[in-house]
Amino acid sequence: PPTRPPAPPATPRGAPPGPPGGAPRDFLNLSDSVRAVALAATAPTLAADVINIGAGRATSARTMVHSLVEISGVPAEINEAPAAEPETQWQQMRIERARELLGWAPGADLTDGVRELWAHITDNASHT
Q1: DSSP-H helix ranges across 3-93
Q2: Is the pLDDT at 122 greater than 80, yes or no?
Q3: I need a labelling partner for 38 at 20 to 30 A (CA). Which of 15, 61, 74, 97 fits?
Q4: What is the reported pTM?
């Protein structure tokens, strides 16, 4: 089963809420989401009411931003503003049911997803 990182310490009064870099979330490449929806829509029967679709790992927004900066090659200074208190401090999907019932597992690495995003942005920049 997924392991949860230690909870951040309580936020003292006046300090910016939320963990540095944002609360980790389970980011998923869009192509993996589309594939999961297609499998669910065409499944003959499903034995569960809820099937989580996710990467199965938690990643901070800071990590995602650093990845985009690295892949783009655009020099950038990253300034983090105080975050609002997140709804939850951590999110990671348990995707076992998706594997069992749909034969689905995420196929794209997040870095590949960021690389695809950057390619899309740069390919379409000349069309605006």
Answers
A1: 30-42, 61-72
A2: yes
A3: 61
A4: 0.71
Residue 92: other Cβ atoms inside 10 A: 19
Q: What residue type is assigned to position 59 of the chain?
A: T
Residue 92 CA, chain-centre distance (Å), reads 9
Q: Which residue in 101, 119, 103, 122 sits closest to 111, CA to CA?
A: 119
Picking from 2-11, 39-48, 83-92, which range would have the lowest pLDDT averaged per residue?
A: 2-11
Please count the CA atoms within 13 angstroms of the CA of 73 that sit on its side-chain side.
2
Nearest to 93 by CA among 24, 15, 13, 18: 24
**Number of Cβ within a 10 Å radius of residue 91:** 15
